Amino acid sequence: MNGDQTRRCPLLVEENAGLLLDYCARRLDADTRRALERHMAVCPECARFRDSQMALWRALDEWDSSPVSRRFDDELSRRIARDPLWMRAGAWIADVSWAPAVPALAAAALWIFLLQPAPNPESAAAPDSMEAEQVELVLEDLDMLRQIPL
Amino acid sequence: MANGISFRLAAQPLAAGGVEDGMAAAPASLASPCDLDAQLMVRVGMGDSASFNLLLERHRTPVVHFLYRMVQNRAIAEDLAQEVFLRVYRSRAGYQPSAKFTTWLFRIATNLAFNWVRDEKNRRQQRSIEGDEAGMRARQIGDGRPSVERVLVDEVKLQEVRDAIAQLPEKQRAAVLMHKYEEMEYSQIAKVLGLSESAVKSLLFRAYENLRARLAHYAG
């Protein structure tokens, strides 16, 4: 925050409004903090905002969080062990660029679909659909990673 | 353990030297040297389960706490956090360190939390239609077992804080939790939420405005 910004009240200048939040969160560098403190000494609106935000900050501090349960890791380990596709395949599916193979895969899927006998309602296909869902989720997660701007 | 993966809770300190030594063998071209987590994740992709243990060790608590504050139920938060780490593990082979690991981690966590919050809203509406008032209170009551926070702080004040945060729109809530409790930079919150940095600043400004109004009696 330079001298010019100091003279302009943060509450009146949209791009500077965050300065007051940063001040209360102790995220300002020393120079900016001092400049803002000089401003707040003569600006009752900003001083009120600061007091109110600091009080909120203290109230939020009350909400501590208790420790993670000791069963957490064991349960995660069990869930990973129950994930047979991924333990077998090592998630290699996600590592492959499938785009060139999509037409061939689609044709194969159609061919299998047309050739297969009528489904027997008693033989549920839950594991297959679960595995497909897992593949889809992994691809979505990796897609999320790619979407994060650098 | 059958799958060769075993985890331990945070009682033991990290073997920092060992990790750094191990990192020297990681392919330098793939991971940013600054992001130890990304390097660990690359190693997980190469089949190193010890690196997954370290990632878990480093991020288990922040992820669980973030999710706990989002959904306000300990058991559900831990269940969702396990889902986060399971999904990270499933993605290991396809992982490319193209962004900060924690940004990706919290993006997965945030999406899972948003989905849960939306589903819960629908479930509550359904229960409301069915007149199941007891079910509606279940989330606010929490797990039913006493926790450290409940014995240490003023119960009423804590409940008010929790309620005020729970009433925030989900993006405002996630932004406040990442800003206040996880101490994330605006730029990282922006990437997690898929917003611009200035949009995050506005979102936070409005969120804190809402909270100040709801908790006004604590001011002054």
Write up what this structure looks like:
The complex is a heterodimer of chains A (150) and B (220). Chain A has helices at 3-7, 18-24, 30-42, 44-61, 72-81, 84-89, 92-95, 102-115, 126-147. Chain A is elongated, with a radius of gyration of 28 Å. Chain A has 150 residues and is mostly helical. In chain A, helix 3 (30-42) packs across helix 4. Chain B folds into 2 domains: 15-113, Rna Polymerase Sigma Factor, Chain: A (Orthogonal Bundle), CATH 1.10.1740.10; 156-214, Winged helix-like DNA-binding domain superfamily/Winged helix DNA-binding domain (Arc Repressor Mutant, subunit A), CATH 1.10.10.10. In chain B, helix 3 (49-71) packs across helix 5 (101-130) and helix 9 (170-181) packs across helix 11. Residues 8-31 and 135-141 of chain B have low confidence and may be disordered. Chains A and B meet through helix 4, helix 5, helix 7 and helix 9 of A and helix 3, helix 4, helix 5, helix 7 and helix 8 of B.
Topology (SSEs and partners):
The complex is a heterodimer of chains A (150) and B (220).
Chain A: H1 3-7, H2 18-24, H3 30-42, H4 44-61, H5 72-81, H6 84-89, H7 92-95, H8 102-115, H9 126-147
Chain B: H1 16-23, H2 36-45, H3 49-71, H4 74-90, H5 101-130, H6 133-141, H7 148-152, H8 155-166, H9 170-181, H10 186-193, H11 197-214
Question: Between the first and last Cα atoms of chain A, what is the distance in angstroms?
Answer: 26 Å
Mean pLDDT of chain B: 80
Could you tell me the number of beta strands of chain B?
0
Overall pLDDT level of chain A: 77
Unreliable stretches of chain B: 8-31, 135-141
Tally of separate helices of chain A: 9
Q: Biggest interface pair, residues each?
A: A-B, 53 and 71 residues
* Approximate helicity band of chain B: 55-70%
What is the strand content of chain A? under 5%
Principal-axes geometry of chain A comes out as elongated
